[in-house]
Amino acid sequence: MSQDVYNFIFIGFTFGLYIFIAVTSRASSTKEYYTAGGGVSPFANGMATAADWMSAATFISMAGTIAISGYDASRFLMGWTGGFVLLTVLMVPYLRKFGKPTVPDFIGDRYYSKVARGVAVVCAIFICMTYIMGQMRGVGVVFSQLFGIKIQSGVLVGASIVFLYAGLGGMKGITYTQVAQYCVMAMAYTIPAIFIAIALTNHFIPQLGLIGDFTAEDPKVPFLQKLNNINTELGFSEFTAGKLGKLNMFCITAALMCGTAGLPHVIVRFFTVKNVASVRKSACWTLLFIAVIYVTAPTIGAFSRVNLITTLHESSYETAPAWFKDFEKTGQMAWVDKNEDGKIQYFGPGKSEANSNAVFIGKGPSYPSDDAPESQLVGEYGQRLLANKGDMTNPNELWFGNDIMVMANPHMAGLPMWVIALLMAGCIAAALSTAAGLLLVLSTSISHDLMKKIVKPTLSDKEEVNYARAASFIALAVAAYFGINPPSAFIAKTVAFAFGLAASSFFPTLLAGIFSRRVNKHGAIAGMLSGITFTISYIVYFQFLGGSPKDYLLGITPEGIGFVGMLINFVVTFVVSYLTPPPPIEIKHMVDEIHAPDRLLAAGVDTESLEDPDGVGGEGI
Amino acid sequence: MSDSSSKESVDGLPQPEITKRVERQVCYVRSSLRVILCLLPFWFLISFGCGILFRDWLDEHAPKIGNAPFGFWMAQQGSIIGFIILLVVYAVWMNRLDRRYRISE
């Protein structure tokens, strides 16, 4: 059987499964649509949350980033998992106690203001849209690789599938679909890693292989040592050293962590279990499931780095493996034969005086139109020619997108075809599950918080769900557009922007809302607006309007600026709150109630008696 | 808690009983905040501390994990394992608090 047949079988089977689950567990009420009725077991919810959490950025892009930048990519590893700790400890139990599944709903009630609710809805839309764009891009990359079609058509195929099961099934459908998707993802990620670990390091646990010896050739050397040597020989910096400054590294990690803790689509997942004790249990399961993939990612990154260089560097194009030519076709890899020797050379910035290893002039590869004469399309050795001019200031000839590392990895290691097909299915599961979760939050924000709570309070349940479906359709269309014309070259980077936005808008406002009785609506609104405006303008200026890296604030890149936006938000929130009158007494009681256990309140104790002189439970933090 | 005596009790319990409940509640809130304040420094230490701020020093002076320098390993794998342990401790600790204060939803 050929690779294509395997791919079709695996992907067809998994898609059939997802859609079957979505249809059989279709939501019939708004409660089921938003929170799956609230009776999912902690274990199943853990898997669903893990799948929801791990997006195309994690699955497709992260290992690639690790392969390219080594230690520097730890920002993603620590940022995304560490944020989960913050989320579980600081946010979820309290929001859960408050009983409002959407973030704008909490903000609207806690800050007793329609304006605050409106601002929160706008922030939620921005965050989710940025995030979905990354996912759609991921879906596009996978589909285009799979069927050899253009990324554009890949994005459209992916978008319609997401709409089919997220729009129809609601949270209930999504929860059980995500359980299935997690299983596919975990297998797809770990199985190739195990195969490769055995081949390179003789360890069947990849994590031990990474810290073990490189045994594929004699004499044995420590694996990381081998990797450092390969890197420095070719003019890259050491794998275990970092190029990012400490401050930058700190800011990006912090932005990712705090952004994670403010992500609306993950918070809502904890409303699908029975009670707070199950929430805590479910959080443990979730992080464990997430870790299965996150602890494997560094090994995949490192292994594929070694494989890529040993297979391609100094090998002649004509004998290059078939997968190289496949990726060339879809525009994810490119080769410019600068010294005209017919061999592929891969070098780092250390090998040139200009300190760059740009293969060609321009951001990404561009190609002559399909009807151009043959001589412009295909080169001397049969390679695909680019319309870009080669950058002759350095000897590097090989260009590839970070996002293909994971997909190319099993090919490089020559793994069996079914493993490759499984990996493809996993990639798609990762992108689809997150896109579906986000889409649901987005549509809920629009239908529930915007339409029902602000525009038209008389909306019936049924109409509300219909609005939600319409909103998800529009959102997908926009996301598909940006998936085709992405704001940055790599998925992980696009997604990092979404986290920056969440960190600068929701995180401080939620935290202050939960732990302070003094913060009022003026403070919250001013804080959210100043935080997100600052962050968006910084990102837009440096990413799209051509701001030069020289002008970075303290050298902080757009990825990490969400952390500064967050600090601004905090400061503005508290300063404005203390300059304006305190919130009404009911709000103070509301905050107390968030901290107090349910049963005591249910017994009918008046919350006013909670006012204690020490301020415990109020401004404790 | 003097003001609670002026309130009507809704569930028909005698006043002292209600005062006790309120005190217990304040204690509970205080203890649960203490749990968070105990755990967060560890969270900061294993990620930002070991992985970024003191990384160079740890690479040099701390024992290696297998063949990997300590700081590098913490940044790539160790911190994640640490996070899981933190969450398990949090869940167990909070459940014990709930039991001690006889709270169940």
Automatic annotation (TrEMBL), chain A:
Annotated membrane topology: Multi-pass membrane protein
Recorded superkingdom: Bacteria
CDD domains for this protein: SLC5sbd_u4
Major place of residence: membrane
UniProt subcellular location: Membrane
Any single Pfam family the record assigns to this protein: SSF
Keywords for this protein: Membrane, Transmembrane, Transmembrane helix, Transport
One cellular component term from this protein's GO annotations in UniProt: plasma membrane
Membrane-spanning parts: 6-24, 77-95, 115-134, 146-167, 179-200, 247-271, 283-303, 417-446, 467-484, 490-511, 523-541, 561-580
GO function term, MF aspect, one: transmembrane transporter activity
InterPro entries: Na/Glc_symporter_sf (IPR038377), Na/solute_symporter (IPR001734), Na/solute_symporter_VC_2705 (IPR019899), Sodium:Solute_Symporter (IPR050277)
Family, per entry: Belongs to the sodium:solute symporter (SSF) (TC 2.A.21) family.
Protein name listed in UniProt: Cation acetate symporter
UniProtKB/TrEMBL annotation, chain B:
Keyword tags: Membrane, Transmembrane, Transmembrane helix
Name of the protein in its database record: DUF4212 domain-containing protein
A Pfam family that the UniProt record links to this protein: DUF4212
InterPro entries (UniProt xref): Na_symporter_ssu
UniProt superkingdom: Bacteria
Domain Sodium symporter small subunit: 28-103
Regions that span the bilayer: 33-54, 74-93
Coiled coil residues, start to end: none
